[in-house]
Amino acid sequence: MKEKPIHIPGRITYLVCVDDSNECRVAIRLAALRAHHTGGQIVLLYVIEPAAFQHWAAVGERMAKEGRVDAENRLQALAAEVHDYAGITPVLFVKEGSKAEEILRLIDEEPYISAMVLGCAPEGKGDNELVRQLSSELTKRLSIPLIIVPGNLSDQELRDLT
């Protein structure tokens, strides 16, 4: 699923952890525009979090397979959007575990990742748990810049920023 880019000094690679939220789309678009304007790259990470409770192993295995297929389909769709939007083909990863832990692990494993872009839901519009985790207790372990983008920015506002 992944094609590892070769690190080019001065080339910024933006990591975006994806889900189905609107703020995620805004983060992807900002990262895509920044990468397009600077000759950079994008890494999209989808983390499949374990189900809280599973009665039977067979059911759990089937759910895991379906989750992986869904994650890969979602990443392919988002990769196509990034390509259409900014002409960049992102590197794709699917991991299983806690989002925050898998993000930190990927950053450690892939030293070419230069910055992370995270969308923040407008107040009362969504869950900002990952933003809270990465911008509070986990910042001691985060080794790259974290760019937090308001999830209600329009495409024009994003273009104006880049």
Number of helices: 5
User: What is the overall pLDDT average?
Assistant: 82
For the CA atoms, what is the radius of gyration? 16 Å
Question: How many domains?
Answer: 1
CATH class descriptor name: Alpha Beta
Total number of strands: 5
What is the CATH fold-level name? Rossmann fold
* Class derived from helix and strand content: alpha/beta
Strand portion, in percent?
A: 15-25%
Largest β sheet strand count, sense and barrel closure: 5 strands, parallel
CATH architecture: 3-Layer(aba) Sandwich
Helix fraction? 40-55%
The poorly predicted ranges are none
CATH superfamily: HUPs
Largest sheet: spatial strand order: 3-2-1-4-5
Which outline best applies? globular
Question: What labels would you give this structure?
Answer:
Rossmann fold; alpha/beta; 5 helices; 162 residues; 5 strands
In short, what is this structure?
The chain has 162 residues and is an alpha/beta fold.
Structure description:
The structure is a single chain. This protein has 162 residues and is α/β, with parallel strands linked by helices. It has a single domain (13-161), classed as Rossmann fold. It is built from five helices and five strands, in the order βαβαβαβαβα. The protein has helices at 22-38, 57-86, 99-109, 129-135, 155-161, and strands spanning 13-18, 41-48, 91-96, 115-120, 146-150. It has a five-stranded parallel β-sheet, sandwiched between helices. Helix 4 links the parallel strand 4 and strand 5 (146-150). Helix 1 runs parallel beside helix 5. The longest helix has 30 residues, at 57-86. The two termini are 29 Å apart. The mean pLDDT is 82.
